[in-house]
């Protein structure tokens, strides 16, 4: 941190040095040119004086010579006027790019600035010399309002006290200040006189004693104020503690206790402490400018401290005022798009409820279509208001936007594929919530469809999440889509030997199907022979159901009934290979079924 601060200070110092160097270079270049002009002025002055002397010595009858000399004198005067205009134009061009060297008062305040050199003294040397002389004048007990005098020294106006010249005002100084030498000299004299007298007044013992007493009074008031601020916030802390389990009973969100009473008390006490210290620091900060303003040596600190607050506040207010038209534009745009979105939401609700019907547009498309339109509208709104956002043309703002876009694009590539697959699945209408489906090797009921995944509850009550992109890449079987209208066909296969007539098998299978609950009587069950193998015939029973979500139960009951019916009718469901090799062993049909089958064959015996 210290290294960073030192580095920043070194940068600031180097920039200041560069600016001062550039300023000095500009002034030196100008003063060099000024020196050349001054030499020419001196030569012209000598020539002018010589011509005036010659005119005075001419006889009254020598008119031709006199006119010639007067013409030369007029040319010199015009040249002098042109010189001053050129000099003034040059100075005006330098005013915006150069800064003068300050003559400072006793309290580090700038009295006036110097730009031009005088003889071998640069502007900086002149300013430092004047500052030193001011210090000596402040120690002179005889100094008063009339101590400084102005004297005309041909090319300059000198401000002096006694035999000591404090400073000289040149023609160039006057041009820099858009004034005359005499007028500027009087202005500088008044400024210097006022600065010295003010310093003498501020630093006499009586005033110093008053200021010290006033400073002590301000310090005492600050201490008292801090003491009572602390007492006040201690009192509020005590009041907060007294309200525990009374007015302060904690914060609950439904059945979850976010803050119990004790924790809420601690949070409020912390806020109370923070506000206390903010108030104390603010009071001290406000009091410091008053304290610094008492003494002239620290008065500039008061302006600096106040400036730390006023400048940011002023800049914020000016920036807000300048931004107000753009802010109103953003509010209008957002309001328009908000009501457009409300209108689209109303249409979505009407379509979803079935009140509004559009050919080829299904009600379950309403919600996802609304979300797509909503995202597009929000994105379009952002694009429209982007130019009106503060700092939108800033390279930093634009760089951050590009960086976030890069992260979103590459960091969510997989997620985006799932989102797109989810939208495609919605409009394909492969299944809805509650459908019994088979996706890949997973069979179960659809319990959730989101933009990223589809969740299925299996018959074993397992929740399986399948990414939508995987659903798109797999084959999907929907058992429920037509079950309620056309019925779902369930099927099971049995193999029976050639010794049992196929008609008896057909009748037994159909009878078993009709005994099974939830299997429809119409359309009636039917049987296919699916294979004539070496030792047996393969029979497939087909039956219609509507409750596709209960296939497991229906299949189980159907197979129970097949066993019962076949056993009752003496049809053994056994491997033909086993039966062919039987060596007198009993049938695998249970005895009770065997007796029933014999009775059915010989009813007279029963």
Account of the 3D structure:
- By secondary structure, the protein is α+β, with helices and mostly antiparallel strands.
- It has five domains: 14-94; 101-203, no CATH class; 207-294, no CATH class; 417-478, SH3 type barrels; 488-601, Alpha-Beta Plaits.
- The chain is 60% helix and 14% strand.
- The protein contains 16 helices and 15 strands.
- The chain has helices spanning 2-57, 63-94, 123-138, 171-176, 181-202, 205-242, 261-292, 299-353, 366-385, 395-411, 413-428, 468-473, 502-515, 551-568, 576-580, 591-601; strands spanning 101-104, 110-114, 149-152, 157-161, 164-169, 251-253, 256-259, 436-439, 442-449, 453-457, 463-467, 476-478, 488-497, 526-532, 536-545.
- The strands form five sheets. Strands 11-10-9-8-12 form a five-stranded antiparallel sheet. A three-stranded antiparallel sheet has the order 3-4-5. Strands 13-15-14 form a three-stranded antiparallel sheet, with helices on one face.
- A hairpin with a 3-residue loop joins strand 9 and strand 10 (453-457).
- Helix 1 (2-57) packs antiparallel against helix 2 and helix 6 (205-242) packs antiparallel against helix 7 (261-292).
- The chain is elongated, with a radius of gyration of 53 Å.
- The relative contact order is 0.03.
- Residues 1-18 and 600-606 have low confidence and may be disordered.
